[in-house]
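Hey, I was hoping to borrow your eyes for a little while. I'm sending you its amino acid sequence along with the C-alpha cells. Take your time with it, there's no hurry, and the full record follows here.
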Amino acid sequence: MSVFNFPQQTNFYSGKVRDVYTIADKWLVMIASNRISAFDVILPRPIPYKGQVLNQIAAYMLKATEDICPNWLINTPTPNSAIGKKCTPLKVEMVIRGNLAGHAWRTYSSGKRELCGVTLHDNLQENDFFPSPIITPTTKADVGHDEDISREEILARGLVSEKDYAIMEKYTYALFERGKKLAGKRGLILVDTKYEFGKIGDQIFLMDEIHTPDSSRYFYADGYSERQSKGEKQQQLSKEFVREWLIENNFMGKEGQTVPEMSDEWINIISKKYIELYEKVIGEKFIPKDLSDVVTEKSIINSLNKLLM
C-alpha cells in the first residue's frame, strides 16, 4: 500500500494494520490495510480483502450504535477507508468479556483467579458465560505490548479521570449489550471485544473499529450449549484461530521467537475466514472491490475537498 499525500495533511502514522493521516489537525483518514497482527507483532504476509472486511464491518457497527454514544466516523469514501473526527485518545482500552475465553482463559487456566482487579470464580471451564459481563481494561501502549490494568490502577495513575472512566464504563456496557443483540440476530454470540475512546474538548467519542474480527470474538450460538456440556471447542469466528496457530508453532511475540512461515494455502484460509465473518455478521454477500491506489486516493481527496470547503 502506498503512502499518500492528501490536501492539508498535517501528520501521518502507520499502525499495525492501518495507515492514519491527519488532515488540518481536525480530521483523520484511516486506510485499513491487509496487514495482520497478533501478539502485537505484524505478521509478514498480508491477507487479501482483510482491510475491506474490517472497514465495512466497523462502519456498519458504528452506524448501528451511534444512538448510544457519539463516534468519530464521518464517511467511508472507499470500502477500505474512513474519514472521521480527530480525537485525543484516552490511554486505556476498554476490554469487555461475556465468556471465559482467549486471554482470560489463559490467565484462569494458569491458576490465577483475578484479572484486572476482577475476581473470577472457581470451577469455571473454558468458554463458560460469566454471570454478567466483566470489564478488563488494558493500557494503550504506543510501542510494545498492552498491559492488563485494573480500574483502581487506572485512576491511581491518573490515566483517565474518575468522571471520564465512569462514562467509558457506561458506554462499554451499553455497546456490548447492543453488540450481543446484533450478533444474536445473526445466530452468533459476541464473546468479548474492546472499545477505544477519545475526547474532543470535554466530550467523549467512540474511536476506531468496533465488533470486527480483529477486535472481537464470536461463537456460533447453534450448538453452543451442547459443545460446552461435552467440553468441546466452540465454533468461532475471530482472529483467535490465527493466534492458536502461532502458539502451536511456538510463537507468542516473545523475544527470540520467530514467526512461522505462512504458506499460500494458509493465507487463503485466513482470507476466507474474514469473508465468512463479514457475511455472517452483516448478513450480506461480500463483494470484493477495486482498491487500487489510484481509486483510493481519488475517492478520499473528493471527500476531503467537501470537508475542507
